[in-house]
Design a protein that fits this description.
Layout: H1 2-39, H2 54-68, H3 70-83, H4 88-100, H5 104-125, H6 134-176, H7 181-194, H8 199-213, H9 218-240, H10 247-260, H11 269-274, H12 276-296, H13 317-338, H14 342-352
Helix pairs in contact: 1-2, 1-3, 3-4, 3-5, 4-5, 4-6, 5-6, 6-8, 7-8, 7-9, 7-12, 8-9, 9-10, 9-12, 9-13, 12-13
Main location: membrane
Pfam families: PTS_EIIC
Subcellular location: Cell inner membrane
Length: about 350
């Protein structure tokens, strides 16, 4: 039992390592993108909104550049926690392959573990080499073998399987587009909290982004409303129900409230990993209410990112705020009722061991 618990903790800590390295990229990139839409002039050219004015283009281009590092850094953070510095080159490449392919967040997560344990394996079998080969081993042999092996795994295993899964989720959403818009808005909102920046979250976002090209602006508002729920539910709950969160979590909660201004949901991942049932359930219900409410109140927005920064651009900003506040309130109440105090959680863990 103790060995199983230890492995579980190592697994979660590996993912948290990736998340902690990734978050600065997400925060910086997300805020810059939000500012770009706030500063731009929509009337110049709606199709290039966010880059029409030079200052807006500056923030948009650099924000997108930061976002492009998100998956490589996430993958490298996991691999580094497991295999050390030697795992970074292959993991950066793996994350870039997932970013440019269809496997996205889930593919980067899986390949982070693959690279980390592959490097450990290579270090063990090459440990008997003479000391004269140490530099050659660290600078050439391990990086080269790990990069080639990871590329093969990514191309022939991860990308076909995970990529197909992501495409199936998108097809499922496409099939619902003709049904009730309120239900679809609730589902898209819920998906924002399902994994808080993972493949389910990104599938909903990409679906809403594609809808923008077809002149459907209601769904993007629903997605943005749903994305605001995780940072505010976790952040506000950690401040109200202090006995149910650690000092570290309360500090993260304050950060989440700030990140929420830009609609960055990834800050909720550490909370989700530690208590997936309660945190995930509370946030998903809150996001579903926010997404469905946004559609019900006829909220729509042309900007694909920005959280509260782009509130003035919404067709019904007051309705958008009402939807988000209602979703956050429901999420906070549910999390406050269901989440146990830290002392109770520790006692249950000790009894289980």
């Amino acid at each position: 039992m103790e060995s199983t618990e230890k492995k579980k903790n190592q697994f979660l800590e590996s993912i948290l390592s990736g998340v902690n390295y990734m978050l600065p990229c997400v925060v910086a990139g997300g805020i810059m993108l939000g500012v770009s839409f706030l500063l731009d002039d929509l009337s110049i050219n709606p199709e290039t909104y966010g880059t029409n004015l030079p200052l807006a283009a500056f923030f948009n281009n650099n924000g997108n550049a930061m976002f492009s590092f998100m998956l490589p850094v996430f993958c490298a953070g996991i691999a580094f926690y497991i295999g050390g510095i030697a795992a970074i080159p292959a993991a950066l490449m793996a994350g870039a392959l997932c970013r440019d392919g269809d496997s996205s967040f889930l593919g980067a997560l899986l390949l982070g573990f693959v690279v980390g344990y592959l490097v450990i394996f290579l270090q063990k079998i090459l440990a008997k080499l003479p000391e004269n080969f140490t530099i050659l081993k660290d600078l050439l042999i391990i990086p080269l073998i790990s990069v080639i092996s990871t590329a093969l795994v990514a191309q022939f295993l991860v990308e076909p399987v995970i990529g197909k899964l992501n495409l199936l989720m998108n097809s499922g959403l496409q099939s619902m587009n003709g049904s009730s818009q309120i239900i679809l808005g609730a589902i898209l909102g819920l998906m924002q909290s399902a994994d808080m920046g993972g493949p389910i979250n990104k599938t909903a976002y990409l679906f809403a982004t594609a809808a923008l090209a077809n002149g459907q602006y209601v769904l993007m508002s629903a997605v943005l409303a749903g994305a605001l729920i995780p940072p505010y539910v976790t952040g506000i709950s950690s401040l109200i129900f202090k006995k149910k969160f650690t000092d570290e979590e309360r500090g993260q909660g304050i950060t989440n409230i700030i990140m929420g201004l830009a609609g960055i949901s990834e800050g909720g991942i550490p909370f989700l990993l530690k208590d997936p049932l309660r945190v995930g359930g509370a946030c998903m219900l809150g996001s579903a209410i926010a997404g469905g409410g946004s559609v019900l109140l006829k909220c729509s927005v042309m900007a694909p990112f920005g959280g509260f920064f782009i509130l003035p651009l919404n067709a019904n900003p007051f309705g958008f705020v009402i939807s988000v506040v209602l979703g956050v309130t429901v999420g906070v109440v549910i999390l406050g009722i269901t989440k146990k105090e830290i002392s109770e959680t520790k006692a249950e863990a000790e009894m289980a061991n």
